[in-house]
């Protein structure tokens, strides 16, 4: 049985962050084009929200569980 | 910390990070998505299993060869970009290639170069940030305001300060450039001008021999074909041919092509796995993850800012294909000549520092696969001088640096990507057979794409991004190989 590590879950979450972008782009009624504070929702997501979330996910869950041996 | 800097340097070669603003300008939100994928791909790779082979195993030759080829193509892409930058700035192409290749080769020859990688990355970041800050100051608007201004443009028109209007430039067209409105174009040096005009129900190809300074008026719907005219000048305040109809159109982008997006995603993620993780991955500490994530965020933020301010200052960027080398030149804006020269020098220095960091880290990455030789392959001066020489000679012929980068990542992903996926080491030989399968399919599809023009749909996406088919094939072989060999004793079949 495959062991699902925290790092693997983080990788899946990062892929989902990427997949969400084109999904937002095809939402009905041009939701993606709605402007909030001067920027469209799609650009807010792709340019600000997704990268920041990705950074948080990476720092929180990507590190190895065990401490690496000193070289 | 050091591992994070290595990951950043291996992944963010100049041909890759300079493609990010080019993609954002050219494709709008689609380009932003690719830039986001480029920033996230190394983080996804850090989350993969990447098992270390057992210490008593024979050293596999296959990953070393695949990685060496991928690194060679990446160097080729970067040197091609250096040649493009030199040509764009008015210098002979070979000078840009030679200076860059010599710098990379010298640093490779120096055994103590590896610790310089973080310093080179920092130097690149600082050198590239200063021109962005100056461009933002000159525009007088923040990044969100810049986006709103670009997205609010009713049309993209030539500013009177554009070099396309004042001096003229070589458009280096790759396809037909269709005009949206009537425009008079001037050939300051004369030459043979090729155009295509609609006639009745069809089209007619037209050819003019122009004397220096002579002009031709093209109507709306007429198109310029790739032609040997050395320079062309355009009229100010006319629509830039090839630009989106308006800022709203640019910000909305084209309808999503799902198979191609899948092709980009597979190529980038598995390319990052092959390049950064296969074989002998660096440990993922919190500092590694933080530096890789922070660096990726900074690169993405720089790419967005540079793309937006570049469109705002130079809508003529849209003319004749948006290529990365245009983003190592300062956009047309009103600054004093000494300041302009200093900023352009900083941009070039940033690009060079990025290339030196990348080539050093790639060499070190290959050396890490050479466990029994103590990493000697990463310090073999003869080998690296040969790789740089071949890449430099190949770069004298202008090619698309982004396509070469995708080719390198696709090959690395198809040949090595699956190796890094498993949570445990595969039985001997399985990874090699899987990698060979993926690489063979990648090669066949890449060759087929040169003969058959990639169309729409899944087949077109597979031809445009061969890793889309090659990676699943390699994964399938790997899964079948692991399942088969786990039930019977295995003889050593290592490549």
Number of domains of chain A: 1
- In terms of DSSP E residues, the strand content of chain B is 5-15%
Record the strand order, biggest sheet of chain B.
1-6-3-4
Helix content of chain A: 55-70%
Kindly describe this structure:
The complex is a heterodimer of chains A (71) and B (495). Chain A has 71 residues and is mainly alpha-helical. Chain A has helices spanning 6-25, 41-61; strands at residues 35-36, 39-40. Chain A is 58% helix and 6% strand. In chain A, helix 1 runs antiparallel to helix 2 (41-61). The longest helix of chain A is centred in the last third of the chain and has 21 residues, at 41-61. Helices cover 58% and strands 6% of the residues of chain B. Chain B contains 18 helices and 6 strands. Chain B is globular, with a radius of gyration of 24 Å. Chain B starts with a helix and ends in a 10-residue tail after the last helix. Residues 490-495 of chain B have low confidence and may be disordered. Chain A binds chain B through residues 2-3, 5, 7-8, 10-12, 14-15, 17-18, 21-22, 25-26, 32-33, 35, 37-40, 42-43, 46-47, 50-52, 54-55, 57-59, 61-64, 68, and chain B through 29, 32-33, 36-37, 39-40, 43-44, 46-49, 144-145, 147-148, 151, 251-253, 256, 258, 261, 265, 269, 283-286, 288-290, 292-294, 296-297, 300-301, 304, 423.
